[in-house]
Write the C-alpha cells for this entry.
Amino acid sequence: MNAILEPVTGHYVQLEHGGRTCRVYFEEAGQGIPLLCLHTAGADTRQFRGLLNAPAITDQFRVIAFDLPWHGKSSPPAGWQSENWRLTSASYCALILSFMRALELHKPIVMGCSIGGRVCLNLALDHATQFRAIIGLQSAASTPRYYDPAWLTHPEVNGPVAGAATVMGLMCPDSPESERWETLWHYMQGGPGVFAGDLYFYQVEGDFRRRVKAIDTRITPLYLLTGEYDYSCSPQDTRDTAAQIPGARVRIMPGLGHFPMSENPQAFINELLPVLNEIAAAGESDEPA
Amino acid sequence: MNWDDFIERVNADPVIAQRGADSSFQVLLGIGERERLITVYAGNVVSVKDGPFVMPQCDFALIGSAEAWTRFCAPHPAPGEQDIFAYFRSKEILLTGDTRKFYAHLMFLKLMLLHLRSQA
C-alpha cells in the first residue's frame, strides 16, 4: 500500500454517566506511560493529531484522547433533543474518571487544554493520587467573562461559524495557516449549543480561585504551560494561579496561543517533550499497585 | 491603520470571498476622535466614509482609543493584543449596537479588520 496510513486507532467505548449510557469515541497511538489528553471547549480529539502522529512522543508514551459526549464523534445520550449540554466541574471529573476506569488506565499523566486545563486543577485538588502527573495547558483558576456565548445559540446566528470566529484570534498569527484553519474547522463542526455549554464551566461554574491553594504538588507534580499569545487564559492568569500553588511549575510558551497542540503541533511538542521527559525520569511506577 | 486600497484588498481576499460570502452590515469604528463607517453588502465592502457623523446609521460600533487601535493594527501585534476580543477583555475597545448582527457577521468582520494591519 502506498498510502500514508497514520498510526492512530479509534474506538468507541460505552460509558455510564449520569445514569445513562454515553457512546464515547477515543483515539490512541503509541505505547508506554499513558498520556490522557483533554480537548478544549467546543472541539474534539483532532486537536491532538500532532501528538498522536509524533514518534518522539509515542515511542515513550501511550497518547489517548477522547471526545466528550456531544463533541466530535461522541454522541449525546438518548433523549438529548429535550435538553442542552452543560458542563460542570463534577460531571467533567466524573467523565474523566469513568473513562479511565473503562480503559483500565493506571495513573496516567493527564494533560488538558483550556477547559481541560481548568479541570486539571480540579483533578489536582480532588483526585491527585490517581495521576502520575498533571499538565494544564492554558490553565488558570478562573477566566473573566468578556463575551457572552449565549449569542452562539441565537437562531439568527450561525453558531459554529461564529464560534470559530470567536476563537480564531486566540492563536498566534505566526502559527502555520493550515493548522490554524484546521483548528477552526473543528469549531465549525461543533454541535448546536455545545461550545456555549462548555463555556458554562469555563466562565461561570468552574471557578477555583478559592481552592487552588489547597493543591498539594507533593502528591502529584503539576505543570502549567501557557502560550504567550493567549488573552483568554493569559500568561499572567497562569502565573497568578501558580503563585498560589507551592511547587507548581510554569512554562510560558513563546509563539503559541490558546490551542498550542493544534495551532502549531511541532512547536508545542518541542515545549512538551522536556516536561514529559522530566515526568518519566521521576521514575514512578506505572504498574498497577 | 492601513486604509490604502482597503476596499480593494478586502474584496480581493479569497478567504473573505468564501467564508464571508453574503455578509451585509454597517460597522462604525471609533478611533479616538476619528470615526469611520464601513458598509458591507453581499460579501463586499462597498464604502468607507470618514466622519465625524451626526446620528449615523450603523448596525454596531467598535469604539476605542487611537492608541488601542494602533496596537491592534501593528504589523506584528504584541502577544495577547492580536484580536479585538482581547481589547474587549481589557475594555480598551467597546462593542455597542446590535450584538446579534455583530455575531452573525463576526467571521467577515475579523477577517476584514486584519486588512487594517500595516505591512511589516
About this structure: Chain B touches chain A through 21 residues (CB under 8 Å).
